[in-house]
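Anyone else keep sequences and structure tokens together like this?

Example one:
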Amino acid sequence: MSLLNKTFLHFEIETQAIAIGERIKGGTFRPCLETIPTSTLRGSFKDYFGLTDVLAIGYFRENTYQRDIFTYAQVDTFLGTAKLPISMEYLKPADGTRAVEADIYLVKNKTAESLVIMYPTEISMGALKSKGFGRCKLTYRGEANPNSKLGYLKGRLLEDECKAFGIKRVIMPCYGYLFYPTSEISGVYKRGLFQGSIIEGPEILIGKEYKYDYKNTG
């Protein structure tokens, strides 16, 4: 384990209800993620602060949340009829807790540092914002200078963001696609690394450590 030449800004968020759902084409049930992908945070910081040069990743803290279901039907404004109901899974505070909590790590740069002087502040992220979901209190907690570690990625980030996050090697990728917003109303899907990928990089990105000699596996 060695110290990385990479600094992150650590923020905390608190919310009463948040839905960061998997995008499933044609599906009527959308499960909620337990992590906050870089693409979600990029869109949020752009919408609320006009910041486009922010790289961030997040994770909800265990034991601060429980899952619930919110069912709603979208309305076709042209026909004036309701579409097939959609069930959206969301996170709410666990029994005995006052808020869902998450840790957010921003790659330190001048743009990210501008957020430090704003805290505490509020942002919104995820789905169902018009119904009151995703309102988050954002609080700065300090700088993080993590060690390098070999293990399983615990979040989701775009493949082309690996270098910026200080990932030295992607040893065994688990690929997926993340929605990357290009405007307020549109975007594209880009390939990303998902949970379970074996990487060597900042320990803040690592869940379970990979203890085997990857050079001699497979």
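And example two:
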Amino acid sequence: MNPTASSTYAAGDAAGYELQMGRWSRRLAPGFVDFTEIEAARRIIDVGCGTGHLSLALVRSPRVEHVTGIDLSTAYVEHARSRSDDSRLEFVVGDACRLPFPDGWFDHSASMLVLQFVPDADAAVREMRRVTRRGGTVAAATWDSRGGLVFLRVIVDTAAVVDPDADRLRAKLLSQPLTRPGDLRRCWGNAGLLDVTQDMLTVRMDFECFADFWAPCEGQEGPLAAYVGRLSTDGRTRLRALVQRAYLDGEPDGPRSYAATAWMVKGKVP
């Protein structure tokens, strides 16, 4: 799926997404669910469900009766469906900015690591509020791309030193919607949600070696892979060598663990 008016993320390879970001979504989801305090519900919607990590975390509670995950990417939805035979889970293809559900249909709505890729994120949040009943929770999480995503800075800061195109990519990635301090709180307030609370959650991104760290850049999923894929063979070889130096930081190749911090917000529908 190419970028659209509703998403700047080129999604199409579910396995590639799992390698690039899904494995970290899996780590983030339980803590985000704890933050939402959603423990019981007849119906919950996971907006921009991707490959299903948040939906799977939500149904860990036996008091959650049904979770609908919705995503623009057919490939992601099919992958999510394949991950569980839990009858409480449903995954459908659809647009976060035009949710195909009536007003107040869900008890709660949540979105994880998605809104930063929605050009009109305010519209998506308004839709989340619309389909959530009065008194229900609307919650979201986005990466702190500039100050809290070490793996990203290792790559884009290195690339930006030697390539103006990478410098422009860095500027784009570090200025995505709803990734700066206070952005989510302001957005939730503008949407008319009440009792708005913002917090942070940090997980660890653990890599076995540099090859594990670099592998997503050689794939086909996400903005980093797209950038690397446009480079010449010599350009890719040069960039890989430079990023490897940054990863090794003077020590032998092997495991590295980087912090990854997400902003989280929740509010109530009046």
